[in-house]
Amino acid sequence: MARVFNHQLGRVMSYWFPENRPERQFAAVFDTNKCIACQTCSLACKTTWTSGRGQEYMLWNNVETKPYGFYPIGWDARLLEALGPQAWKDGVYEGRTIFEAAPAGERLIGFAPEELDYAHPNLGEDESAAAVDKGAHLIAGRANAWMFYAARICNHCTYPACLASCPRGSIYKRREDGIVLIDQGRCRGYQECVRGCPYKKTFFNPVTRTSEKCIACFPKIERGLQPQCFANCIGKIRSQGWVSTPDAAREDNPIDYLVHVRKVALPLYPQFGLEPNVYYVPPVHVPAPFLVQMFGPGAPAAIETYRSAAHDRTLAGLFTLFGCTESTIARFAVRGDTAIAWGNDGEELVRVPVREPVTIRAPWDESLAVPRWNIP
Ligand code: SF4
Ligand code: SF4
Questions:
Q1: Distance from Cα 369 to the centre of ligand 2, integer Å
Q2: In the prediction, which pLDDT does 363 show?
Q3: By three-state DSSP, how is residue 32 classified?
Q4: pLDDT band (50, 70, 90) for residue 142
Q5: Is there a domain that residue 94 lies in?
Q6: Residue-level pLDDT at 139
Q7: Has residue 197 got a pLDDT over 80?
Q8: Is residue 306 assigned to a domain?
Q9: From CA 115, how far away is CA 310, in angstroms rounded?
Q10: Domain span including residue 242
Q11: CATH number at residue 102
Q12: How many independent structural domains does the chain possess?
């Protein structure tokens, strides 16, 4: 095993290969507070990439309700239990990663889901963490009955477990954008990647007898466009771009700004040790212990920062740009009341007002001499 630095853990860790970062790294931020579980993203992906034979059960993009939703069943709960204590101290992870917890002779700890584990992708949908009495209502931040939606794709990890576990060397991480792909010509269907990926984002195709996974819509990425699940997101919760290492973070790079500068977007289960590159704004109404387990020790501070966005023009402006262009946003600025986005080649993509004007209409329309029924 090599020794590599994982900035999400704040320490060096063991990994199967030496550190070898790409020229730039595909990354994304998902704002969980805006997701409505409409599954448009899941369907956009399904109709684009997984409508073939052997792919029926596959959802490269899925949206599950936490705490009781899983696809496949128990994907995270089973691993969290196997990992043992997962304490953090001053931002440094003190527990073991899935690579460090591997038994002698194995590359990592993992498990292979069974066919039935994939059969109920909507398991637990809209179920809250506790029973809700008849007539009760939810009070954000103070209720024990909570749930939220977690949209998930492959994280195109810096230290991919799928890649580390493939005995054929069929999985590779692209130098130019950090996207992780499976070479369909080399794959022999051993399914070690399915067992190894803790996020369960590689899938075995029983017809082609090879494994498949999210490809980050790389034909779109190569043309400066965001993937299908981003472009079609109804809630405008997603933005795709490029993430730097913390020492090279740029304030005008939208992903760097949210991840490194403001620390409002956090990795999913950083303790697994893969340095995943999809970052989440945690849901504001969920108890801190659950969020710390899921997104690391920065979750309470991230929520405070997110709540302050209403009075923070730069943060509010950047969130307003989510979902406003199909192109990858490489740079942004907020000038006065306008948020501006630029693409990979420096071209201006879009300008949006940070706050939409509010018009209050009179309840009586003088010109038509009719009442307006939409005024309460
Ligand atoms: S999320 Fe899983 S499939 Fe995707 S790169 Fe990481 S380990 Fe591989
Ligand atoms: S399309 Fe967007 S809002 Fe709808 S479920 Fe997917 S991530 Fe959530």
A1: 42
A2: 82
A3: helix
A4: low
A5: yes
A6: 62
A7: yes
A8: no
A9: 45
A10: 2-131+141-291
A11: 3.30.70.20
A12: 1
